[in-house]
Amino acid sequence: MRALFSIAVLMSTAISAVAAPVLHVPEPESLALVAAAAVAMLVARRNKK
């Protein structure tokens, strides 16, 4: 039983080490917030000139 448990632990760590990493996609709200900040910076820069 102990050997079976150790084999299961080794296989689970080996599978997670070989698996491709999951890329996190930003949420649309985050992208909208970044876009709004960029537009605000451009407007502020334009008004400064």
From TrEMBL:
InterPro entries noted in UniProt: Ice-binding_C
Transmembrane segments: 29-45
Keyword tags: Membrane, Signal, Transmembrane, Transmembrane helix
Residues in Ice-binding protein C-terminal domain copies: 25-46
Signal peptide (from-to): 1-19
Pfam families (UniProt xref): PEP-CTERM
Annotated protein name in UniProt: PEP-CTERM sorting domain-containing protein
The species this protein was found in: Candidatus Accumulibacter cognatus
